[in-house]
Amino acid sequence: MLIPRPLTSLCHVLAPVSLVLLLAMNGCSDAGAPDPIRPAASSGATAGARTTAAAGTNSTAPPAGSAAAPPAGSAVAPGGSAQASAAGAGTAGAGVAGAGVAGADAAGVGPGGEVAGLGTFAGLVSTLSEPNGEFFSDNLISNETSYLQVAAELAARPAGGVYLGVGPEQNFTYIALARPSVAFVIDIRRDNLVHHLYYKALFVEAESRAHFLALLLGRPWDAAGDPGARADVSAVIRHAEKMPADAATRDATLERARRRVEETWGVTLNAADRKAMEVMARQLHERQLELRFELHEKKGRRYPTLRELLEEDEPGGVKRGFLATEEAFRFVQRMQREHRVIPVVGDFAGDRAMPALAELLKNKGMPVTTFYVSNVEQYLLEPKVWEKWRRNVAALPAREDAVLVRAYLDQGRKHPRQMEGHRTATVLQRFSEFAARQEKKPYRSFWEVATDGAAPAR
């Protein structure tokens, strides 16, 4: 979520607001390639503890169509390559729990080849992206405690299609819930693109949920004692925190990630990008799961920690974050390994990334099903800017039931669906309702946008 600040002029904030579109795309062409970057099992502090398979995990691939594989047949690609990738859930290492060194990286070690016939992963990241824009917060993690408020509704919807999103790690949960075939994350901040590339590298390397979290926090991982596929998120966190964080582990993880991004996947990073990746790794290493969203200008507000976000419940009391279940994690991991999550630098109301993406999806017959916009629209309400946003949404090919996922921040006016104990509310609106409402009467404020058709919280 983006936090408002007092403005002397809206223009300098509204114009650059952008979003990273996570687009789940086709599998890579060199699935059997060995991984030259993965560390040896006996290296560093994990000597004697690390193994090629996490104890207690399932060693067989999930069936096609399960939560651990993108929906078969739902992405359109020349020659059916995307369909084949989605259906071939039994291929080596494709979302396999504890598949071992070779298998675990098999789907994500190469440059990616053709992505749904559209070019390479690196090419899409580069050609769709706009120049970097600035914002007044460092969104290393989300600040939306209500992000699971719509979890049951998203999970009940048909799988497939294209997911679009903005911001950091909450996208992984929405991808796991929406089960798209492809995903793009668009954000005005190039740092967000770099952060997602770092996450991608960790997803590719991780052999389990606890291993992923240990990598993220700069900690060694005890493979032999891994809690396995049936562990709840609290057990996953406990195991990830079992061994002390150390700078050597952090730096080695960062270097492997950088090499994957630049040397293996062919994404060009400049000096500022490398610094942004290093800052992310250091912040997570220093602050661990107590890391919070922060404004550049301190306002005295308390935002949730990463630990609190990972352990958050949906309204029904069920934990449904991307690390809460093996199914959720493996689905996102497979998407990442198959280059199906693509970060882009772009402006929601811009003239480059959004229109180019809309044309791309139209040409390939890929409809948008879910568009997580957070509260970005709050910064787009200047008339000329809002009209561009409307235009960009209207240009997207969309499934009949496509929805916008919005977040609202209580700054003195409580949302009708705001749950007890939360300062945010998360709501859904159909694309069709968004368009029809504005044909009758334009929105005059973000309050009207966020509460349009909202019922009281359950």
Could you explain how this protein is built, in words?
Keywords: Signal. Residues 39-75 are annotated as: Disordered. This protein has 458 residues and is of the alpha/beta class. It has a domain at 11-43 and 56-198 and 308-451. Helices cover 36% and strands 11% of the residues. The protein is built from 17 helices and 9 strands. The strands form 2 sheets. Strands 1, 3, 4, 6, 7, 8 and 9 form a 7-stranded mixed β-sheet that branches. A two-stranded antiparallel sheet has the order 2-5. The longest helix has 18 residues, at 247-264. Mean pLDDT is 79; it is low at 3-34, 40-67 and 72-110.
Write the layout of secondary structure elements.
Blueprint: H1 11-14, E1 19-22, H2 81-87, H3 100-105, H4 121-128, E2 137-138, H5 151-155, E3 162-165, H6 170-178, E4 182-187, H7 190-205, H8 209-217, H9 233-240, H10 247-264, H11 271-287, E5 294-295, H12 306-310, H13 326-337, E6 341-345, H14 353-364, E7 368-374, H15 383-395, E8 398-409, E9 424-430, H16 431-440, H17 446-451
- Class derived from helix and strand content: alpha/beta
**Biggest β-sheet strands, sense, barrel:** 7 strands, mixed
What form results from the Cα inertia axes?
globular
Supply Rg. Answer: 21 Å
Find the count of extended strands (DSSP E, 2+ residues). Answer: 9
H/E element string?
Answer: HEHHHEHEHEHHHHHEHHEHEHEEHH
Organism: Chondromyces apiculatus DSM 436
Keywords: Signal
Protein name: DUF7790 domain-containing protein
